[in-house]
Amino acid sequence: MPQGMTVRTRGGATHLECTATGETYESESLRGLSPAGKPLFARYDLDSLAAEFTPSTLTNRPASLWRYEEVLPVRDAACRISLGEGFTPLLAAPSLADRLGVERVWIKDEGQNPTGSFKDRGLCLAVSRAKELGATALAIPSAGNAGSASAAYGAAAGLPVHVVVPKDTPAPILAEIRALGADLQLLDGLISDCGRVVRAGCDEHGWWDLSTLKEPYRVEGKKTMGYELFEQLAGRLPDAIVYPTGGGTGLIGMWKAFEEMEALGWIGSERPKMFTVQAAGCAPMVRAWEAGDTHATTWEGARTYASGLRVPGAVGDFLILQALRASGGGAVAVRDSEMAEWVHIMGAATGVFAAPEGGAVAAAVPKLMEMGLVDPADEVVLFNTGSGLKYVGMTPTD
Ligand SMILES: *Cc1c(COP(=O)(O)O)cnc(C)c1O
After folding, report:
1. From ligand 1's centre to the CA of 390, what distance in Å?
2. Is residue 184 located within the same domain as residue 173?
3. Ligand 1 center–CA 6 separation, angstroms
4. Nearest CA to ligand 1 atom 10
5. Does the first or last residue of the chain, that is N or C, have fewer Cβ atoms within 10 Å of its Cβ?
6. Which residues, other chains included, contact 124 with Cβ-Cβ below 8 Å and sequence gap of 6+?
7. Is residue 112 located within the same domain as residue 168?
8. 386 ligand 1 Cβ < 6 A
9. Cβ 126 under 6 angstroms from ligand 1
10. Looking at residue 213, what is its pLDDT?
C-alpha cells in the first residue's frame, strides 16, 4: 500500500448533535462542547445500517471494542489506535450472588483493560479521532486513570500528552503516566482545578482538550460496554446495571448504546434499571437524584479514596439524571470503609481484585435492595471499573 494512503473503514458518524438543544453540526472537524456549552453526541445513519449491521455479523470479529466499527466515528484504519481495549469478560459470580441474596450477578471486569481501567475505552476513541482530525498535542485533567489511558493512547498514536492530576493521586498511577512518556503536572487541588490548568494550556499552546464529555468521542468508546453486555448475555440485557459514577461517561454511553441498538432493531424499548453509585464524601449526583433535580450542584470538600469518584461536578449531570429516571433506576452513596470491605468480599468470592469503585457497586446492592429498587429475582451487572492494583497504598477516608 502506498504510504499515506487512507484505508476507509465501515465507521463514521453522519453529524454531531447537541445533547441539550438538538442542534446539529458537521462531524469532520475537531469540536468540543456545543455553542450551548453542552456535550455533543455523534450520530450515525442507523436506518441504513440496520440492514447489514446485525448481531450475527459480529461473530468472527476481533475481541476489542473495534468490533463495533459501524457505530464508531473513526474512518481511517491508520487512525484506529489499539492496545487491545474492550471486550472484557462478563464473569458469573454465583457466590457473590448468594451473599447478596440476588438471583444472578455478573461482574463486568474492566480492570482487564490495557491500563487497568475502563478509561481506556474512552481515550482510545478520543485519541484516535483527535489524530484523525489533525490534533497535534493532547491534554487532560484527571483523577488518575484517565491520565494513564491518555498517556498510553497518546504514546501509541505518536502524539504528546499533557496530564494534570491532584497530587494525592495513587502512586502506581503516577508511575504509569510517567513511564508512558506523558508530561505530568501535579496540583494541590481536585480534578476541577486540574481542568482550569488544562484549559489555560489549551488556549495558550493549542493542545486538544480530552476532558470528560468536553469532546464527543470518549462517550463513543464507553458506549461499547452496552453493546458488549448485549452480546455477552447472548442477545438480552440485564435487569439492573450498577455503575460507579464520576463524570458519568460510561452510564451515559451505555444509555446511548441502548438507544442505538433499539434503532438498529436489536432490542425493543425495554431497558435495564440504571444505578449510579458514588462515595459518601462526594455524591453530587445522589443528592440531585434524591432532590428530584434535573441538574446537580458542585459538591464542596470532595473526599474519597476511590479517585475515579472524586468528581465534584459533571458536565453531563442532566444526562445521567435523565437515564436514572427513565430507566426506573436510582442513585446511592457508600462510605469508603464499605467500599474497602466489599473489595475483600468480592475478591474472596470471585477472584477479582477490584478497585474501590468496584467495591462500591457491590456495597451498593444491599442498600438498593433495602430501598426496593433491586429485586432478589433480578439479574444484576456490577461494573468493576478498574484493577485494585492501581490503588495499592491508598486507604479509606471515612
Ligand atoms: C473514572 C472512573 C470512574 C468513573 O467513571 P465515569 O465514567 O467518569 O463516571 C469509576 N471507576 C474508575 C476506576 C474510574 O477510573
Report:
1. 13
2. yes
3. 34
4. 308
5. N
6. 65, 81, 82, 83, 85, 86, 149, 153, 221
7. no
8. yes
9. no
10. 86
Number of domains composing the chain: 3
- Are 258 and 226 within 8 A, CB to CB? yes
Shared domain for 142 and 283, answered yes or no, is: no
Q: Are residues 165 and 265 in the same domain?
A: no
Strands 379-384, 104-109: pairing kind: parallel
363, containing H or E segment: helix 356-370
Do 194 and 242 fall within a single domain? Answer: no
Residue whose CA is at the smallest distance from ligand 1 atom 4: 246
Name the domain boundary from 209, 228, 258: 209
Does some domain include residue 133?
Answer: yes
Domain range enclosing 130: 119-209
Atom of ligand 1 nearest to the CA of 145: 15
Mean pLDDT, all residues of the chain:
96
Please write down the long-range contacts of 69-72, taking CB distance under 8 Å and 24 or more positions apart.
69/9, 69/10, 69/11, 70/10, 70/11, 70/44, 71/11, 71/44, 71/46, 71/223, 71/227, 71/260, 72/11, 72/125, 72/220, 72/221, 72/224
Sign of the Cα pseudo-torsion (83, 87, 92, 93, in order): positive
Q: Give residue 1's pLDDT.
A: 46
Answer yes or no: are the C-beta atoms of 141 and 198 closer than 8 Å.
yes
Find the 48 Cα to ligand 1 centroid distance in Å.
Answer: 33
Question: What pLDDT is recorded for position 5?
Answer: 64
Cα–ligand 1 centroid distance for 35 (angstroms): 26
For residues 316 and 326, give the distance between their C-alpha atoms in angstroms, rounded to a whole number: 16
pTM of the model: 0.96
Over range 94-106, report the average pLDDT: 97
Of 378, 345, 356, 352, nearest to 275 (Cα)?
Answer: 378
Residues 244 and 315 occupy one common structural domain: yes
Beta-carbon count within 10 A of 263 CB: 14
285, part of any domain: yes
**pLDDT tens per residue across span 177-233:** 999 999 999 999 888 889 999 999 999 999 999 998 899 999 999 999 999 999 999
Atom 15 of ligand 1: nearest residue by CA position:
308
Q: Which amino acid is at 44?
A: Y
Asked if 52 and 33 touch (Cβ cutoff 8 Å), the reply is no
Q: Residue 295 domain-assigned?
A: yes
Measured CA to CA, the distance from residue 360 to residue 70 in angstroms comes to 34
